[in-house]
C-alpha cells in the first residue's frame, strides 16, 4: 500500500518533519489546509513527536491587558512569550466572555493546555466559578465544569491531569480552609478534606509529586501572611503540616517551581529554597531596571520575570541557569500585568 501523501512530492518522513517544525502560532492556519493535516495536528502522536525531536517550545503565558482609554476598564487577555521565536503572541479571546479574561483569575497548564479558573466579572465584581481551557494544538477554547465553590485569591496548582484549588476567600471575605481537585480528563470536580487552617491569598505548587499550599492568612488576621505550609497526600486523602516554609508577613505570590526546586523573589533577590532546612538562600540580584516584579514563571533553561520599571513601563528579563548564570533583557510585553502566569509546552 502506498504511503499517504502529506505534502505532494515529498517523502512521508520529510513531510512530517516539516510539519513538526511549524511554530505554534501558525497552528490555526495550518490546520485549515486539509483534513489530513487537521487530523495530524489533533493527534497525541503529533505532540509527542515534536517533544522527542526537540521541536517543542516553552511558552510563558501571562495574564495582562493592553493600555486602555482613560475612563475605561482594561480588557485582559493572555499573552504567550515564545522563547524560540523571541516573540509575544496574544491568545484568542474566550468566546463566552465579552469582557475578556476575568480579573484576578488563576491559570495553570497541563500538557499543551492552559486552564483559566475563577476570577471576577469586571463589570459587577461578581466572583466567578468558570473554568475555561485553551488547547494550543486544537487552537481553541472550551468550557470546563465550573468550580463547586466560589472563591477568590486561592492557591492553584496542576500535575498529572489534576488541578488542585485551595483556600482563598468567599464573597463575604471569609478565608477558606476548603480544597477541591479537578480532573481534566473526566471534566469533574471532587471535594477534598479541609486544610488544617484557613489560607487566604495562599500559593499552591506541586513539589516532588505532592501538592503543597504555602502561607496565606486567616479571616481574623487579614494580611498577616503565615510562614507555614501543608501538603496533600492523595493516597491517604489527608493534609500534612510542613512546618515553617516561608518568611512570615510576606505574600507568597512570586514562588515558582523550576527543575524540581522552588524559587521566589524577595527584597530584590532571586532566592532558592533549600528544602531540607526550609531556608531560602540568595541566588542573584534582580537587574536594576526591575523595580517592582509582578510575576515569575519557569521557561526552558531559566526563569522569566515580568515587572515594572521606575517609570511604570513593563520590563521582561530572563534568568538563565547556565554557568555562569545571568540575566537577559527580552522584548517588552505590554499593558498591565497580573500576578498569574504559567508555562505551557507546545
Automatic annotation (TrEMBL):
Domain of life: Eukaryota
PANTHER family, sorted: OS02G0208700 PROTEIN (PTHR46407:SF3)
Protein name as it appears in the record: F-box domain-containing protein
Classification via SMART domains: FBOX, Kelch
The species this protein was found in: Ceratopteris richardii (Triangle waterfern)
CDD domains: F-box_AtAFR-like
GO biological process: negative regulation of cytokinin-activated signaling pathway; regulation of phenylpropanoid metabolic process
Domain called F-box: residue spans: 10-50
Pfam families, per the entry: F-box, Kelch_KLHDC2_KLHL20_DRC7
